[in-house]
From TrEMBL:
The lineage of its organism: Bacteria, Pseudomonadati, Bacteroidota, Flavobacteriia, Flavobacteriales. Pfam families: FGase. This is N-formylglutamate deformylase.
Length: 263
């Protein structure tokens, strides 16, 4: 299955959390094409993001999580491979051929266009179709819907940025993918926390945020990128209950604010 759905365990609210990069599985036909050492350590994965947010269903929030790894196909990229940024940073493609630092992940031949389109059909489109379906259902029930795209990244990725990333980065495509009061509701707990928080820099939301965020159509989208050190151990190789427990009150306040705020 391309994705997993986690239903709310409390009365439903108009929020959908998407975790498109936490998947760790590889279809067999893709696994055969990749370098075995890359499969053994798919370092660009948003490790344990689905675990970090497992409190959300108890707040009435629906979740969708990708099962396949982003190296199969990147669900947060434009399907036509239009770059997200034009400032010279390394941007991996729709079907990445390297990791964030430019290391090759394929054993020999990289995917041709036919293979890329096969993956779009089999893995990309089902996830995006389901996100759209869930958002429309929430909008029909509540009059509006909020998509919260959840991501993480290593504190240091020299291929993208020569200095450490901020702890928390809220993206809303330069304040176009959500209404001002929705943005404010999410941003306030971040900037008033003990964590270093920024807004739309150095990330302003990927394709999912930009594509689905249509405030004029009563669908609002936000992306929260965070440093993995917030909830993983110092080496960013294992989940840290201690670090996560410190972060959770901030995340829970974000969603409490969003639940209490109407566009």
């Amino acid at each position: 299955m391309v994705y997993s759905i986690i239903e709310p365990t409390a009365p439903k609210v108009p929020i959908l959390i998407s975790s498109p990069h936490s998947g760790t599985e590889f279809p067999e036909e893709v696994k055969k094409q990749l370098d075995p050492s890359a499969i053994a350590n798919p370092d660009d994965t948003d490790w344990f993001i689905d675990t970090l947010y497992n409190f959300a269903p108890s707040m009435g929030i629906t979740m969708i999580t990708a099962n396949y790894n982003r190296w199969v196909i990147d669900l947060n990229r434009d399907p036509n491979s239009k770059p997200l940024y034009d400032d010279g940073r390394v941007i991996t493609g729709l079907v990445p051929e390297t990791d964030f630092n430019g290391n090759a992940i394929y054993a020999n031949k990289t995917p041709d266009e036919a293979e890329i389109q096969r993956r779009v059909k089999n893995y990309y489109q089902p996830y995006h179709s389901k996100v759209g379906e869930l958002l429309e259902a929430l909008k029909n029930e509540f009059g509006y819907a909020i998509l919260f795209d959840a991501h993480s990244i290593r504190k240091m990725v020299p291929g993208i940025r020569k200095v450490p990333f901020p702890d928390l980065i809220l993206g809303d495509n330069d304040e176009t993918s959500a209404s001002p009061n929705i943005i404010k509701a999410a941003l306030n707990p971040l900037v008033n926390s003990e964590y270093e928080a920024t807004h739309n820099y150095p990330f302003k939301g990927g394709h999912i945020t930009r594509f689905f965020g249509k405030p004029e159509n009563n669908i609002h989208a936000l992306q929260l990128e965070m440093a993995k050190t917030n909830y993983m151990n110092e080496s960013e190789t294992a989940f840290s209950e201690e670090n996560a427990e410190e972060l959770l009150p901030v995340l829970k306040q974000v969603f409490a604010n969003l639940i209490a705020t109407k566009p």
